[in-house]
From TrEMBL:
Annotated keywords: ATP synthesis, Cell membrane, CF(0), Hydrogen ion transport, Ion transport, Lipid-binding, Membrane, Transmembrane, Transmembrane helix, Transport
InterPro entries attached to this UniProt entry: ATP_synth_csu_bac/chlpt (IPR005953), ATP_synth_F0_csu_DDCD_BS (IPR020537), ATP_synth_F0_csu_sf (IPR038662), ATPase_proteolipid_c-like_dom (IPR002379), F/V-ATP_Csub_sf (IPR035921)
Localization: Cell membrane
Name recorded for this polypeptide: ATP synthase F(0) sector subunit c
Membrane topology designation: Multi-pass membrane protein
Family: Belongs to the ATPase C chain family.
GO term, biological process aspect, one: proton motive force-driven ATP synthesis
Organism from which the protein derives: Variovorax paradoxus
Any Gene Ontology CC annotation: proton-transporting two-sector ATPase complex, proton-transporting domain
Transmembrane domains' residue ranges: 6-30, 51-73
Molecular function as annotated in GO: lipid binding; proton transmembrane transporter activity
SUPFAM superfamilies: F1F0 ATP synthase subunit C (SSF81333)
Domain V-ATPase proteolipid subunit C-like, residue spans: 9-71
């Protein structure tokens, strides 16, 4: 096979963009969680449950993107 293979670049972008989005998302949700618990301390239990649920879903998207990227890197389904 001759030419420039862009698969490693695509995998790096897939994992990198997903990691950046996940970190920013969890950071913003954590910021709003701390702000809301400072305003209404009696709502900590309800808000903490929702925070962990949202953080898990956001992190799950990154884990799925990493798995797909590693699958492309090792199996190369397009080749």
């Amino acid at each position: 096979m001759t030419g420039f293979n862009i698969l490693p670049l695509a995998v790096a972008l897939l994992i990198g963009i997903a990691a950046l989005g996940s970190c920013l998302g969890i950071g913003l949700v954590g910021q709003k969680f701390l702000e809301s618990t400072a305003r209404q301390p009696e709502m900590v239990d309800v808000l903490q449950t929702k925070f962990f649920l949202i953080a898990g879903v956001t992190d799950g998207a990154f884990i799925i993107a990493t798995g797909i990227g590693l699958w492309f890197a090792t199996a190369n389904p397009f080749g």
